[in-house]
Amino acid sequence: MSAESDKPILIVGSMAFDDLVLPSGEFPDVIGGAATYSAIAASLFARPRIVAVVGDDFPASVISDLETRNVDTSGIEKANGKTFRWAGRYADNLASRETLKTELNVFADFRPKLPPSYRDSPVVLLANIQPELQLEVLDQVRAPKFVAADTMNLWIDIERPALERVIKRVQAMVINDEELRQFAGEHNIKRAAQAILSLGPERLIVKRGEYGAMLFDADGIFFVPAFPLEDEVDPTGAGDTFAGALLGQLAQLGTVDGGTTRRALLTAATVASYCVEGVGTTRVRNLTVKDVEQRLAELRNLVHVE
Ligand code: AMP
Question: How far is the CA of 14 from the centre of ligand 1 (A)?
Fold first, then answer.
């Protein structure tokens, strides 16, 4: 693993204010959003190019901070109006959460227009946002080598046909277990996985929170543990951090074969574990490649036998 590179990865997704109700207290106006978390994680390995929209209430300092960490922000549109806002309340054990509010705000009228310099992106992460916007971004990329998409229960509920069009056009889907079951109408994970794979993607990555993640592809099933944490603070964005770290590594290495993907999944689980240790992006923002390497060695030991 080496530090950030100039290898591009295109990321579309939400940039947000999150109002979080955590067991440790209430945290309003936390900077979040799927694109924000994914780009911070991907920037450990590659040069993210963000496509998103923020309102006039969004702090310019957050965007300049992204720039200092090797993120291309020229595709972030600043619109008149309010930034996307999501509010969620977590259960005491942090294992489940309830959405209290989703306000699309400036995302409601957003038509993504890729800067010309973004169009040749070889690796694309369609992080969580309306599936129609994911499709519009994909339409503007010339010949991507590897596209992965994430989604959320809301889009399965209200935009399923568009979401299915997304799934048909990507090489990999990244989704959490609850959403996979909801999409498939099937509780068994192995059978539910078929509902996605039968639509076309070569790979399906199922995020299972504290139970790790599973990869389904032509080579079989691969399991990645979650790093056991002592201090779990805020799981918000851990899934986006996981996807950003995974795709960032694939962009950096320029290869997407099964073995590379499996190795990258271990690192992605490691990076995502850090996310949970702080509110919002506080912990992932301060992460170094060295931190990741240390914890990755511990994670590997969890599943290694002589
Ligand atoms: P995660 O915990 O990985 O599912 O991601 C949480 C992030 O997703 C938060 O920072 C939210 O701002 C963002 N988010 C929540 N709901 C949506 C939605 N419907 N579309 C896009 N992003 C969302």
Answer: 7
